[in-house]
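Milestone M4 deliverable, item 7.
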Amino acid sequence: MFRPKIPTMPQPSGLVNPPVVVQPTTITPGTPAPAPAAAPEPSRPVVQLTPGTAVALVGAGTAVVLVVGTVLVSLLLAVAVTSASVAVCAVVLRSLIASDAKRR
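Output delivered:
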């Protein structure tokens, strides 16, 4: 059950061509090609911030910060509510166990 089963290789079913022998070729050294002239660097477009785009970037950054802050605060609130409910359950169980022990 735990041993791997190795599949058997079936016999080829189609036409099988014999391997082709590749003859080596000789390389004759020639004159080296001249180095290409250095092409001028293409000028990159410069990003210009207009007042409208700056306001849009600030607004987008503020929105991202607010969304991330809301998510983090909600996660913290969920942890706080869960821990408070676990603490209340622990107090109730402790009270039940203590009252049960007094009756005996």
